[in-house]
Design a protein that fits this description.
CATH class of the domain at 2-160 and 186-219 and 269-279: Alpha Beta
Shape: globular
Strand content: 15-25%
CATH architecture of the domain at 2-160 and 186-219 and 269-279: 3-Layer(aba) Sandwich
CATH superfamily of the domain at 2-160 and 186-219 and 269-279: NAD(P)-binding Rossmann-like Domain
Number of helices: 9
Structural class: alpha/beta
Order of helices and strands: EHEHEHEHEEHEEEHEEHEHH
Bound molecules: NADPH dihydro-nicotinamide-adenine-dinucleotide phosphate
CATH topology of the domain at 2-160 and 186-219 and 269-279: Rossmann fold
Length: 298
């Protein structure tokens, strides 16, 4: 099997390099790649890459993910998150290849308390969410074989993430206030990559299982409770903190304004995916504790 991976250095892309390796020959690109074009802003270059490498599977882990910056750069966000996936879909259709793509709970209105299901009405309310939805729709309209995996609150041991920021701030500052009215599920890039490889294997032999799925760890939390969990784990590992877990203050979204509006309800219902691919998704704490062990042992 020939696999083209785009966005190899992102949180998910990095883990996909590992999880896709056993599937066959993997060509992993980033925006700087020189032999093949891996820059999603270069639509002609991207099409040429797919035509030349002729993959059986394209995995697109590249995206314009700066949610706040997207508000002032809507064209750039749209190019990477909507136009480039449309090109990939067109080329996948021509080659009869499977296109795997990631999307977000930001395609929804973000209200209510019920975990979003795949068929729920979409209503993005920021530029990033709109651009990601446009990408989804382009892939679906192309008629190519595809897997679109909507996820939320992605973290990885590599690079910056919320948990690392909380650890640093709790060691530097005297107090820490964190948003407590946005609900979601921290989902590890490792889990996303492992499930992706499993789903690709399954869809290659059962093409009828292609389509749109929600993929996130089990359970739910808020950013504030997530922060407290991180600090509890750090404390248990012997890290000395100026702000202990119980000192983390709970604030509302209004108290922490950002250029892009954020959803209050990022919960995703993952029943469809678990059933289709015979999977049982772990509680979010399992992956976060593992990532913290990795960070704290360094
Ligand atoms: P990251 O921000 O960690 O990685 C995104 C990658 O895309 C980076 O490696 C970046 O490379 C690359 N990229 C950006 N612009 C271009 C471009 N023009 N050409 C080629 N590559 C480019 O994102 P994640 O790994 O967290 O996200 C993976 C997927 O999951 C994305 O589709 C995202 O929308 C989705 N998602 C992420 C969530 C999150 O919380 N992070 C939540 C929900 C969904 P470089 O750094 O070199 O620019």
């Amino acid at each position: 099997m020939r696999v083209l991976l785009l966005g190899r250095n992102g949180q998910v892309g990095w883990e996909l390099q590992r999880s896709l390796a056993p599937l066959g020959e993997v060509l992993a690109l980033n925006s700087q790649s020189t032999d093949y074009c891996g820059d999603l802003r270069d639509l002609n270059g991207l099409a040429a890459t797919v035509q030349r490498f002729a993959p059986d599977v394209i995995v697109n882990a590249a995206a314009y993910t700066s949610v706040d910056k997207a508000e002032s750069e809507p064209q750039q966000a749209r190019r990477v998150n909507a136009e480039a996936p449309a090109v990939l879909a067109l080329e996948a259709k021509r080659l009869n290849a499977l296109l795997v793509h990631y999307s977000t709970d930001y395609v929804f209105a973000g209200d209510g308390e019920t975990p979003w299901q795949e068929a729920d009405p979409v209503a993005p309310f920021n530029v990033y969410g709109s651009s990601k939805l446009e990408g989804e729709l382009a892939i679906q309209a192309s008629g190519c074989a595809h897997l679109i995996l909507r996820t939320s609150w992605v973290y990885a041991a590599r690079g910056n993430n919320f948990a690392k920021t909380m650890l640093r701030l709790a060691q530097e500052r005297d107090s820490l206030n964190v948003i407590d009215d946005q609900f979601g599920v921290p989902t590890g890039a490792e889990l996303l990559a492992d499930v992706t490889a499993h789903a690709i294997r399954t869809v290659m032999s059962q093409p009828e299982l292609g389509g749109l799925y929600h993929l996130a760890a089990a359970g739910e939390t808020t950013w504030c409770r997530y922060a407290r969990f991180v600090l509890e784990q750090a404390q248990a590992a012997g890290v000395s903190l100026k702000v202990s877990p119980e000192m983390v203050g709970a604030i509302t979204t209004e108290a922490y304004p950002t250029p892009a509006k954020r959803p209050n309800n990022s919960r995703l219902n993952t029943q469809k995916l678990q059933k289709a691919f015979a999977l049982s998704l772990p509680e979010w704490q399992v992956g976060v504790a593992r990532m913290l062990t990795e960070i704290l042992e360094k």
